[in-house]
Amino acid sequence: MNIKIRNTFAEITGASLAMIWMWLNLTEASLMTIQAVSKVLAQGIGGSIILIIALHIIFNILSSIITGQYEEDIDDERDKIFELYALQVSSAIFGISIVATLVLLGWFNLTIISGLIAITFSGFIASILSLLLKIYLYR
Amino acid sequence: MLKKKIQIENMVRKLRFNNNEMTQQQLAEEVGVSRQTIVAIEKYKYTPSLDLAFKIALAFDREIQEVFFITQ
Questions:
Q1: Helix crossing, A77-107 with A112-138: angle to 10°?
Q2: All structural domains of chain B
Q3: Interface test with A, best of B24, B34, B43, B44 (most A CBs within 10 A)
Q4: Is the pTM of this model over 0.95?
Q5: Which of A63-72, A77-86, A130-139, B13-22 shows the lowest mean pLDDT across its residues?
Q6: Does the pLDDT of residue A138 top 90, yes or no?
Q7: Positive/negative CA dihedral, A55, A61, A64, A69
Q8: How far is the alpha carbon of B36 from chain A, nearest alpha carbon, in Å?
Q9: Residues on chain B bordering chain A, Cβ-to-Cβ distance under 8 angstroms
Q10: Closest partner residue to B49 among A2, A77, A138, by Cβ?
Q11: Cβ neighbours of A45 (radius 10 Å)
């Protein structure tokens, strides 16, 4: 497994764990205030960033211990192209989900809390799908 | 008009071996890309930019058309 796939796995793991944590803390969302929901979402987003950085470091340390060599992470033109494809996919998914959420909010007269949760989770899902695309391209 | 897709092939792998059995890592470091990019180029999975193609040709001290060519 090369460093790019390893780092992408770290990002997927971090984002997934943050999503699960948020989901577990939002099971009673209908009874929660908007401040409490926003707090959980903000903590989840912040936590995912810290978790991803930590997992990057842990995965690379583990890889260095197992293989016995340090692999440098070089970003070249191929990585930039893959990054662009991933960005296109995540932007498309996130854009569509924002529009869908807004339409459904009005259509079914949902609360603003549901919209907030749906938009945050669609951001995470868009990010995870774009990372999966990157793994497919790097395979 | 050349609308049909063209297949660009290369001699990178052969040239590496003819060049004191240069490793993929050595070539990657010389042209400033990752080893995975050299692997992808050798397997024809990735066509490099003109800039990188020139750098690779220069690394072998060859003309670009000697390293990269089209197969009909």
A1: 160
A2: 7-71 (1.10.260.40)
A3: B34
A4: no
A5: A63-72
A6: no
A7: positive
A8: 8
A9: 28, 32-34, 36-37, 40, 46, 48-49, 51-52
A10: A77
A11: 15
